[in-house]
Design a protein that fits this description.
By secondary structure, the protein is mostly helical. The protein is about 90% helix and about 0% strand. It contains four helices and no strands.
């Protein structure tokens, strides 16, 4: 019974460690807000430069801008895929924890059923005046 109690406690501990979807969404929202703030700051900085400097910077950094746009697109794609993988892994982990909890409950109920059946057999044997030797009594004595 101690092993069953320990297993159930571990299952409860694993279940409490689940990531809160609301906290995850809030962190993602804060990250997106930070990126938007950076973009707005960059736009204000760019607007403050004289037109000739802006044209020179555009010509100079045009290839880099295309590469950065590609990298940004690929990064967003990777982020979406990682979020999906993380969600799938968490769902799979929670499903395995739930399966383990069910398995522990089934094993525990099976052993309780065996104990009850053995108890009924022992009572029947005692009623028939048979001597019943219990393993626990022999080990203690």
């Amino acid at each position: 019974m101690d092993a069953i109690a320990r297993a159930q406690q571990r299952i409860e501990d694993a279940a409490t460690g689940r990531t809160d979807p609301a906290a995850f969404d809030a962190a993602l929202h804060r990250a997106r807000n930070a990126v938007e703030t950076l973009a707005a700051t960059t736009a204000r900085f760019e607007a403050g430069l004289p037109e000739a400097i802006q044209d020179g910077l555009r010509q100079h950094f045009r290839p880099s801008a295309r590469h950065l746009a590609e990298v940004r697109g690929l990064t967003n794609q990777v982020i979406r895929r990682l979020e999906r993988i993380e969600g799938d892994l968490l769902a799979e982990r929670h499903a395995r924890v739930d399966d383990l909890a069910l398995l522990v409950d089934l094993i525990a109920s099976g052993w309780r059923s065996v104990e009850e059946r053995l108890g009924r057999l022992e009572e029947g044997l005692k009623r028939d005046s048979a001597v019943v030797y219990r393993l626990e009594d022999r080990q203690a004595g």
